[in-house]
Design a protein that fits this description.
The chain is built from nine helices and six strands. Strand 1 (22-27) and strand 2 form a beta hairpin. The chain has one domain (41-230): Transferase(Phosphotransferase) domain 1 (Transferase(Phosphotransferase), domain 1). By secondary structure, the chain is mainly α. It catalyses: L-seryl-[protein] + ATP = O-phospho-L-seryl-[protein] + ADP + H(+); L-threonyl-[protein] + ATP = O-phospho-L-threonyl-[protein] + ADP + H(+).
Amino acid sequence: VAHVRAERDILVEADHQWVVKMYYSFQDPINLYLIMEFLPGGDMMTLLMKKDTLSEDSTQFYITETALAIDSIHKLGFIHRDIKPDNLLLDAKGHLKLSDFGLCTGLKKSHRTDFYRDLSQAKPSDFIITSSPMDSKRRAESWKKNRRALAYSTVGTPDYIAPEVFMQTGYGPACDWWSLGVIMYEMLIGYPPFCSENPQDTYTKVMNWRDTLVFPAEVPISEEAKDTIIK
């Protein structure tokens, strides 16, 4: 219930062109109801599943709009903490809006969750990759096959989460920019940079990202795009 109330409070404050509009809310003794703007364009996850990859021009358009959306909520004093394609919605004209503020928190708070508790005391060297490496085609096929199931699972996917969030050592707005870089990689390559056959291996790759972030030669992208992702 707390995360739903948090989302309602943030949507009231974040009345902005880059954020899904909430028209009004009401509640009964059990439930809180949010009446939200309808966006007929679907979400970025569905678009990527249909297209596999986007051109650099299309990627630039969507990443720019997402960056403006992230900046707008940071200026209001919030960190989203859950930036991923599922939460990037498209209006009738194809413009992007940010949704799902259930995990959002204030910039001055260090939020801890049960989901990351087992990793809070871990060090990058504690993680060992257990699955065998896959080429880019197999990784894309595996990712696409499992993507929607991950989106609607109770645990979700760790692919877009910054290392400092896993470590629970305190984090700031940079964790949202990390997620944006992961999404840009996925748009251009066809899967997130740290995707694996199981969540534990994804954790491992994220925590050791300097060694595990690679750009497959068989999916060429410009040096400018690579530089933007790394930054």
